[in-house]
Amino acid sequence: MGHAPTVASMIWCNSVVSYNYCKFQWLLLCCFLFLAHGENIKRSDFPDEFLFGVGTSAYQIEGAYLEDGKSLNNWDVFSLSPGTIRNGDNGFIADDHYHQYLKDIELIQSLGVDTYRFSISWSRILPRGRFGDVNPDGIMFYNKILDELVSRGIKPFVTIYHFDFPQELQDRYGSWLSPLMQEDYVHYADTCFKNFGDRVKYWTTMNEPNLFTQMAYQNGRYPPARCSQPFGDCPAGNSDTEPIVVMHNMLLAHGKAVNLYRRDYQHEQGGSVGIVLDCLMYEPLTDNELDQEAARRGLAFSIGWALDPLTFGDYPSEMRQYIGNQLPQFTSAERKFMRNSIDFIGVNHYSTTYAKDCLYSDCSISANRATKGFLDTTSERDGVQIGELTGISSLRVVPRGIGEVVEYLKERYDNKPMFITENGYSEPQTEGQDQDAIQDFKRIEFHQMYLSSLAQAIRDGANVKGYFVWTLMDDFEWIIGYRIKFGLYYIDRQTLARVPKMSAKWYQDFLKNNTQTPVIRLSSELVHNKADS
Ligand code: NOJ
């Protein structure tokens, strides 16, 4: 059989877990691969200069929530109120990366990746935002990480803000609902550029502002948990208007920070800067022109909402058409610095949904909303699911979607460089099956199929420069806590030991261009490219 484990991999195996257990896993993997069939996806199917990486975010892994001068942030405070996070989990210890960063960087290096995406904890380096001093211990922590990465030849790919900020900014003026947050953000970004920019060639200003506005101000499930009916039942908030205000402040904060970077740092430091968006793909529920239009609106109201202002200087025409009177105006000076304020697009892509028209068709009251683009979403068409279930029910496995979304971005944004900043799989939850989590064949299958679809999009001309697996290790998955696992490494929650899953070994092999691992096609959802559809 062509998939027999090599001596080297057995040595690897022996070094990480019990030898017999590992042998057993290898046997399973071999059987699995033997039964499977399909084309190969190889590292060499991607351009030579293409970057492969793995990603994390500060709050999801660091822990040490009150150590060495870090202040309480929005997630610390949120998780202290009962009932907010599943199982009462929190990020106080998380994966203890703050203390185990060296070991984690060794794991990252052992995967053989070119780059590592991580975020900086705002409250660790500026515990009181711009109302207090820079915390030297916080700066030192990220300096150590950057130095380690650079000395090992791993390119740092740094997210400045990934959902966590000092609680003081919430308490003082309501954080992102206020334009004052723009000033705090620019001060924070400036602190990052000044201290870390000599080693960082890839910056992203923010992670998923489009998802954040929805989760924090529309359905009220992320802090500061604001919403109104029919989206949710929060003590305060307005789900129809606040997301729009928050996004406006975030976009202006981005634009101002990028302007500052380009003026004061970019020439000397030679880095590039982008933004990361949640890029869910929308397909029409039916062939009907109304649903096709709804799918186009879905993309414009989620992706275009952020990327149009940062590319063309204004909100999408689709949004102006339907909610023009609700959208804030950019001044002409703002349009000027917003336009072309990204060097690349960060694409977080996991799944695809069907879109159904609500402008001319009957929909539920919560779907038929202006801020959502007057459309409903569903994963089911004629009783058939769009793809296999994952640990997050809205994220079905739909490999073709990554090619489709990249194609959409290519057309709409003149093929601006893109990085797939996140793509990953969490298995549907089962009670007490931690051992199974290590034999994560479904995760391998997921990455192979999505990579195949992506490789085809690149062959079709999409300007995609890199791909990051989400995530290095199981972590604090926000309101779902530790039960949902996306990692290549399993974390034993008692000992915090890192245990490699089969997917870690697969990624390692893939990056060595091991051509023996086939695309595994056991699920009903097959990769199909434009030509098939
Ligand atoms: C996107 C977010 O950036 C990340 O923090 C999260 O863990 C993944 N999606 C999975 O839900």
From TrEMBL:
<dbReference type="InterPro" id="IPR001360">
    <property type="entry name" value="Glyco_hydro_1"/>
</dbReference>
<keyword id="KW-0326">Glycosidase</keyword>
<dbReference type="GO" id="GO:0005975">
    <property type="term" value="P:carbohydrate metabolic process"/>
</dbReference>
<comment type="similarity">
    <text>Belongs to the glycosyl hydrolase 1 family.</text>
</comment>
<keyword id="KW-0378">Hydrolase</keyword>
<dbReference type="Pfam" id="PF00232">
    <property type="entry name" value="Glyco_hydro_1"/>
</dbReference>
<dbReference type="InterPro" id="IPR033132">
    <property type="entry name" value="GH_1_N_CS"/>
</dbReference>
<dbReference type="GO" id="GO:0008422">
    <property type="term" value="F:beta-glucosidase activity"/>
</dbReference>
<protein>
    <submittedName>
        <fullName>Putative glycoside hydrolase family 1</fullName>
    </submittedName>
</protein>
<dbReference type="InterPro" id="IPR017853">
    <property type="entry name" value="GH"/>
</dbReference>
